[in-house]
Amino acid sequence: MMEEMYKRIKEKIENLPDSPGVYLFNDYNGKVIYVGKAKNLRKRVMSYLTDDSPKVKYILRKSKDVNYYVTDSETEALILESVLIKKYKPIMNVQLRDDKQYPLLKLTINEEYPRLIKARRFEDDGAKYFGPYPQSSTVRETISLVKKIFNLRSCNWNLPKSKPKRPCLNYYIGNCKAPCQGYVSKEEYWDMVKDVLSFLEGKYERIIEKLFVEMKNYSDNLEFEKAAKVRDKIKTLQNLGERQKIISFNNENKDLIQLYIEDHKAKILVYLVREGKLIEKRIFVLNLSYDFVKDEIIRAFILQYYLNREIPDIIIIPQEISYEDFDIIKYLSEKKGAPVNLRLPANEDESKLLEMALKDLSIESLKSEKVWGALVELQKLFGLDDIPLSIEGFDISNLQGKEAVGSKVFFFKGFPDKGRYRRYKIKYVEELPNDFLMLQEVLRRRLKMIDEDPLADIVLVDGGKGQLSSAMEVFNEIGIKPKLIIALAKENEEIFLPNRSKPIILPKDSHALHLLQHVRDEAHRFAISYHRKLHRKKILEPSLMKISGVGRKRWKILMEHFSSIEDIKKASLEELKNIPGIPEKVAEKIYMYFNG
């Protein structure tokens, strides 16, 4: 049987075309187990028949069929190979973990008046993408900074075809130039967009120089309020620049790539150096199903990583790589549209930076080992069939039943996955405060979304036996059986399980306990932050909106300038009059309300 199969594959290989392209080996179930590229398909795949390496022997032994795609060029073959590896996730290829879970920054330069928005995937739509970013907070903070410093619009209007009748709140608080009303010309707006591009590429110095000129012009024209606003923008950018480590003094743009291998996983760290400053580091994990050599891992990473990312002028790697029958440098240069230098470190600074990257990776590895140890400990402790990779935690927060809220946090492989956090405003519980009923409401609402948001391996509720019983009632009522549900009580750190009378008490130095505490405390923090937000809004909004002329819109404008009612009380009449979007008469009414 095996001989016949081998003969059939051999015949198919012999009939492959002498063209560039991509080949795919399929197993007996039709699943793609390996994807490769070739300058000459027939020659490359024929070489498998005489290759004695364990990897090739394994591929041939497991394969039932071989298929191929012909491409017009070597470059197209490289791109198609990366696309197919991402699509099929073959077990015998080096695979960069899919980063669709990580958010991106999207600058919509395909629009007449671009915006900077959050995106979940790269699209071939003419926009400029940055990222992905492992932390969602980085994306939110960057968008907020861009609004504050550069005043790009954030609305969804299809300008200039459709537009609102009047400017939105962002214009009145100084976060938008209102291109929808023609308050800024198209040329001026695109100058702002160019500054945003420089900012996202880490080129702060040129923006600061430009802002200094702008500030001086305002000052010379005695427009001191405008000059002060520009000064604040300069300070923000200078603070950002000071946080970045200076690596070299020749304003180079380069990426440095370092590799660390352990337990069938390769961790790769990329340092992004822009204009001589280290602006960011990114860590990626590649799943290895076989003992790949280092140069093969680096080569595969480069091809997959730069498929949809900005390519710098220089890429520094920790060791030489073989190019097989493809010139990666040529491919990268063609894709960038300019020469790319792929090389080893050329000086002491670059060597030290790669050493620092290796230390970073080893520290990350130690963290992962500790977390992985905690997950293994949880598996043994609770007698689970598999290691619990995911944990979700729930908590309730209220002040004597007021502004009652619930929270759900989600941890994957021991680390927070904030994209799966959820907040719940308690709607249906009338007997407040009642933590048990509120927890049940939150769980019912959470379980309604189980198809879109699958349940974690461990469900953790903050509390003791009562909270656990309440939670179990909901699961039984809906007919969903969790893999494991537990309650963690804060007082003695007792772990309660269903159908067990006595709690489990772990040693204080237990990694498993520390992980469960982290989940519980994070759920508590997330619930408290939402509760405080609602409480603050309830206190501030009604008192201000009692004032004639202050509606929700002007309330928001005031809250952008003042963090509390006390600050508004202390404000002078002149200060209130100078707030954009607050008419003089309304400012007088606000002042008289608190000081009359």
Describe what you observe in this structure.
Helix 8 (204-220) runs antiparallel to helix 9 (224-243) and helix 13 (435-447) packs parallel to helix 14. The protein has 596 residues and is α+β, with helices and mostly antiparallel strands. Among the domains are: 2-86, GIY-YIG endonuclease (3-Layer(aba) Sandwich); 254-361, Nucleotidyltransferase, domain 5; 390-533, UvrC, RNAse H endonuclease domain (Nucleotidyltransferase, domain 5, 2-Layer Sandwich), CATH 3.30.420.340; 546-595, DNA polymerase, domain 1. The protein has helices at 2-14, 41-46, 54-62, 74-88, 136-150, 169-172, 186-200, 204-220, 224-243, 294-305, 328-336, 348-382, 435-447, 465-478, 511-545, 552-561, 565-570, 573-577, 584-595, and strands at residues 21-27, 32-38, 63-70, 95-96, 104-107, 116-119, 128-130, 245-246, 254-262, 265-274, 277-287, 314-316, 341-343, 390-399, 402-412, 415-416, 422-425, 458-462, 485-489, 494-496, 504-505. The termini are far apart. The longest helix has 35 residues, at 348-382. Strands 14, 15, 16, 17, 18, 19, 20 and 21 form an eight-stranded mixed β-sheet that branches. It is globular. 44% of the residues lie in helices and 19% in strands. The mean pLDDT is 84. Belongs to the UvrC family.
Summary?
The protein has 596 residues and is of the alpha+beta class. It has helices spanning 2-14, 41-46, 54-62, 74-88, 136-150, 169-172, 186-200, 204-220, 224-243, 294-305, 328-336, 348-382, 435-447, 465-478, 511-545, 552-561, 565-570, 573-577, 584-595; strands at residues 21-27, 32-38, 63-70, 95-96, 104-107, 116-119, 128-130, 245-246, 254-262, 265-274, 277-287, 314-316, 341-343, 390-399, 402-412, 415-416, 422-425, 458-462, 485-489, 494-496, 504-505.
